[in-house]
Amino acid sequence: MLGIMLLSSGDDHGAKVALRKALKVSPKDPIALLGLAQIARVEGRFDDAQSLLKRTLEISPKMPTAWAALNATRKMTTADSDWFATAQEIAGSGIPLWDEAQLCFAMGKYCDDIKDYERAFANYRRGNELLKSVAGKYDRQAHSSFADDLIRVHTRESLASIAEGGSASAKPVFVLGMPRSGTSLIEQIIASHPAARGVGEPDFWLQAARAHHDEIRRQVLGLPARKKLAEDYLRLIERRNLYALRIVDKTPANSDFVGFIHTVFPNARIIRMRRDPIDTCLSCYFQNFSTGMTFTMDLTDLADYYRVHQRLMSHWCNALPSGTILEVPYEELVSDQEAWTRKILDFIGLEWDERCLAFHETKRSVATASAWQVRQKVYGQSVQRWRNYEKFVGPLKGLKE
Hints:
The structure is a single chain. This protein is mainly alpha-helical. The chain has 3 domains: about 1-60, Alpha Horseshoe (Serine Threonine Protein Phosphatase 5, Tetratricopeptide repeat); about 65-135, no CATH class; about 140-395, Rossmann fold (3-Layer(aba) Sandwich), CATH 3.40.50.300. It is built from 19 helices and 5 strands. Strands 2-3-1-4-5 form a 5-stranded parallel β-sheet, with helices on both faces.
């Protein structure tokens, strides 16, 4: 249990130590083996992950989470039809809701991999319906009202009038946008530079916004509080990256708090990922996120969330000083990788380094849903992917960048 808790908190090294100790006590413990397989996947060791999962399934042949995890280590083909048949059997055997949902998302991916789009969508829809039955309801009015208040408080004039930020540091780089818009790819490119590191998706600013919820909806946060936030945040991101010149935080939810973050780190650079809105929302729908991201479980909710996100980002791009935000179109990045990589490095003040083009070879932990994708060379198969599902995406059809 210690290993699993350390893994969930992002301490992969501590998790490995604890899980290996557990296996010394009980060499055939399937949960410990599954935990080590998850770490191997996060670290990009997909062959090791598969070997550990196979060992897990030798001990517990119908373990739903292990069976679903096999799907996440590679692209599947029609030769994996036995995997799909067993997944269907396990999903229909009366297992807990969470396990069935995980298998449904895995079966959706299998069908998408083999281009059986109708069955893929049916499995993704089933997975989302299972999660919706136990998750809280997405509150469209509350989200829109929160955005209205942040826009009203953090105007171009109020941001320009701030004489002093919480810190003058330019070390943080915030990569943000909608979930599944390409933020992990940008983090991996920058983190491949020897002077940069990535910290994944810390929830620091979400927690800070909650702690100061009422105040940031009424006025710009006071200087003492901003200085304290700056100290706490730098301490957090420097914990394992003390000597890096730039440290990338790629938390998509930070999109809501750009003005708030700018009052704390006015010299920090912000990279906003833009991707076709239907591709983005459909990719969110196909991902088994935590039940906290309730807007991802329904296409109509996703459309509403995207519109609010777009309204906020348009405001931030207009309100913040010129040169603070760089907008990177995902489709242009994958079609001209070098040109955009040069723009990105120049924007955050780093010299050119060829290693950023070979980002897929960089050895580092990636704990997001894109752990497999960022270990591949840039590919364009995800551009206009929604066309394969056109008859299912009605609520998303009106979305525009």
